[in-house]
Design brief:
The protein is 35% helix and 39% strand. The chain is α+β, with helices and mostly antiparallel strands.
């Protein structure tokens, strides 16, 4: 019995050692032009990517952290799904707070900021992908 447990534990370690753990930078425009974005995003909410937007903020430094299943899926498509899901979370908050825009949106994976107007960051694992966005709600 001890040998079986040892073999199983060794097998689990080998799988963990070979687990995928990549960070991708993907096009915001491609994600926003995807069929999923066209179907799911509220066209009444505007999004502004990258830091530097000034204005009348309702709430600052909000974070949406979303995951998506990556098993058997293209990394880019799975990452776009997680990205759109994070934007949906922001859109819902914008509407709830009476705002019109989500601004200063930056990638914020594990509290590390990736600030870009053209790309978002996506963590890709063997079975899941993750996108975290940080931003502000504005009028």
């Amino acid at each position: 019995m001890k040998k079986i447990i040892a073999v199983l534990a060794l097998g689990a370690l080998c799988v963990a050692a070979n687990a995928k753990n990549d960070m991708l930078h993907l096009s915001i425009a491609d994600a926003l032009n995807s069929d999923l974005a066209k179907e799911k995003l509220d066209s009444g909410v505007k999004f502004s990517f990258g830091s530097g937007t000034k204005g009348n903020f309702i709430h600052k430094d909000l974070v949406a952290n979303k995951k998506a299943n990556a098993v058997g899926k293209d990394d880019t498509a799975a990452c776009q799904r997680a990205f759109i899901s994070a934007l949906i979370t922001f859109a819902e908050r914008v509407k709830k707070e009476g705002g019109k825009r989500a601004v200063n949106l930056v990638s914020y994976f594990k509290k590390n900021t990736f600030d870009s107007k053209t790309e978002f960051e996506c963590a890709v694992g063997s079975i899941m992908v993750g996108v975290a966005l940080k931003g502000d709600v504005a009028k």
